[in-house]
Amino acid sequence: MKIEKLSKRKYIKTSIIVLVVISIVGVIFINRSKAKYRVTQSIQIVNGTVTYKPADLNVVSLNVEETAGSGNYTKAKVPTSGSYKINTDKTYCTVGSSEAQLKNIPIEYKDGKLYIGINDTKTKCYVWLDINNPAKDVVDRLGITVNSVSDGCPAYEEAPSITSIEDRKSLLCKGIDDFGDTYYFRGNPTNNWVKIGKFYWRIIRINGNGSIRLILSGYNGAKTTGTGTQLGSTSAYHSSYNSANYVKYMNGSTDSTIKGVLDSWYNTNLKSTYGSKMDGEAGFCNDADNGTSSSGVFKPYDRIVTNKKPTFKCNTKDNLFTTSGNSNGNQKLTNPIGLITIDEASFAGGLWDIANSGYYLYTNSTYWTMSPSGVYGGSASVFVVSTSGYLGHYNVSSSAPGVRPVINLKADTQFKPDGDGSSTNPYEVVI
Predict the structure, then answer these.
(1) Which class for 69: exposed (0-12), middle (13-18), buried (19 or more C-beta within 10 A)?
(2) Model pLDDT for residues 12-59, shown as the tens digit of each residue
(3) From CA 404, how far away is CA 113, in angstroms rounded?
(4) If we measure between CA atoms, which residue out of 252, 212, 217 comes closest to residue 360?
(5) d(CA 308, CA 161)
(6) CA–CA dist 334, 331 (Å, integer)
């Protein structure tokens, strides 16, 4: 056999080729060996994905709550609909062959994606997803028991039939608003008092976005009756009355008389110290579109007087007064303050033209709501809660009714830890 030496040039060329091949093979080998730490796969969840590293993580069990707050779960590959949050009490992971439950692995469900922080290989996770319910979270934080239909609450639906007053029971009932579930007080509760500085308020309801809706009920002490439950002087709703436009909280850029009163009071008493605690998204529903039952009446009249089916939902975006900068409502307000709606008064226990002195909105004084009634004989009218506690209406130019401001506290508002919601030991807002 004849052996020939490679020329120096051929030797160099061959060496380079060999090195390149070795490098490519090495890269492929390294990538494959490290693939379990680098490859990401996805599982579709609702409109998003669960992102995980397959060799590191195995989602052994995904359990989805069937209805909000029920505690009942269905095993599923994906949630069927809605917004979810991790149930941190139930969710856990294990590592390797150990059966020990690890609670310190960061797990988050956000924007349709499940994020799990992996610190060890061969991690198995057992995940429980609860339906996201901001209002229920606040109710639980306050420690208030939710009542059911069997306890005396109206049916859980958008517009339940309410044909009788509630003047005896203390109820917290579940309803539906524009955000989802809302929890409202009905009857004669004794655990819905809130103190903000020197002012005392009653909780009307926990809005679906978790904000807390309050109505004024006293200065320097809790008041249940008399003019001490409202502002110091009465006010007309509007200075004019001979047009349907005068039932509007704002007509274009023109404020109603009562809006000016509320803005002035808010700027003097709440803005500087407590303005940061206010929620501007939940808003205040004016619902000033024409109704359907007959000409001259508005939709609140149809619901409360004709059909007796109130709702927490606002009719249109233009009718929901929210502060500027929010994604919800008409964003026309500078200050996050308004009035109660006649629907809320009905849910609380009031009824059209039937006296009721036994529910918490009765004060033995007449005061305005924010809900239009109709135009009668050329005079515009807005609903009121009357001296006897029945739901009625007044000409907008009347200065007889009082003014009870309504505000919404943010869902994350902190209260002093020892409050129980009673008039003597209310939930007190921490500055």
Answers:
(1) middle
(2) 555 555 454 445 444 444 344 333 323 333 444 444 444 544 444 567
(3) 44
(4) 217
(5) 6
(6) 8
pLDDT for the residue 18: 46
123-131 and 92-95 beta bridge pairing: antiparallel
Tokens 């508002």 belong to residue = 413
CA distance 294 to 281: 33
Q: Which sequence spans correspond to the domains of the chain?
A: 40-132, 135-428
**pLDDT, tens digit, for every residue of 371-384?**
999 999 899 999 99
* Widest pairwise Cα distance in the chain: 124
Q: β-pairing, 379-385 with 391-395? A: antiparallel
Section 5-9 average pLDDT = 49
For residue 222, give Cα distances in angstroms to 6, 199, 214: 104, 8, 13
DSSP-derived secondary structure for 121-167: SSEEEEEEEEEP-HHHHHHHHHTPPPP-GGGTPPPSSSS----S---
